[in-house]
Amino acid sequence: MARDLGINIRKRAIGSFLEWDKFDQAVGGREQSLGTKLHQTMRSAVAKRAPALMNAIWKFNGYCSTLETLNKPEWPIPLPEPLPVKLAELRESPLLMEDVWISKTAGERPRWLVEPQVRNGIRAFLKTDRCVEEQRRLTTSAVGLGGNSAPFKQHWLLLP
Q1: What pLDDT is attached to residue 108?
Q2: Cα separation values, 69 from 66, 72, 73, 136, Å
Q3: How far, in Å, CA of 93 to CA of 108, rounded?
Q4: What DSSP letter does each residue of 66-101 carry, written as one string?
Q5: Chain centroid to CA 115: how far?
Q6: What is the Cα–Cα distance from 68 to 80, expressed in whole angstroms?
Q7: In the structure, what pLDDT confidence band is assigned to residue 98 with cuts at 50, 70 and 90?
Q8: 8 A C-beta contact, residue 96 and residue 13
């Protein structure tokens, strides 16, 4: 139940964040401006959905505390962490995007789940991999833009 509720919260929260972004862009002048009536209608629609999201978050946090009290140290079960109650904090929280399966695992917990250093190492490896891909793409683009010329090669070699 906690997993399904977490997925439901994620869908609702992302939808809410996208609505607020669109609303803020229109108010800030980046998008087409809204008329007064449309502005009020959109604002009231967004405000109507907020209590349902907040109730779901409180229910999920209740499940988290119940699971924490029922959990025994010898059980290798990863527990979900409570979500922030304020929407601004929820938007910045990585907990919103994490799925923790509530089921027994055989043996020890995976190191990436337990140790923050391993997670940081995996993220660094993936970031390095993306940098290598980007360098290949830029090299291909440079060759397409006349990268075989001598001045271009001199500038390219000066880049760090």
Answers
A1: 73
A2: 5, 8, 11, 51
A3: 27
A4: HHHHH--TTS--PPPPPPPSSHHHHHH-GGGG----
A5: 20
A6: 9
A7: confident
A8: yes
Q: Which residue has the tokens 């994490």?
A: 98
How many whole angstroms separate alpha carbon 141 and alpha carbon 134? 10
Give residue-wise pLDDT tens across range 134-153. 888 877 777 766 656 666 66
What's CA 89's distance to the chain center, in Å?
A: 12
DSSP 148: T
Q: How far is the C-alpha of 114 from the C-alpha of 109, rounded, in Å?
A: 7
Phi-psi region of 83 (alpha: psi -120 to 50; beta: other; left: phi over 0): beta
Whole-number Å distance between alpha carbons of 96 and 60: 11
Which parts of the chain are beta strand (E)? none
User: Which tokens go with 53?
Assistant: 């999201």
- Tokens (6 digits) for 142: 């440079």
Q: Residue 16: name the closest of 59, 46, 51, 58 by CA.
A: 46
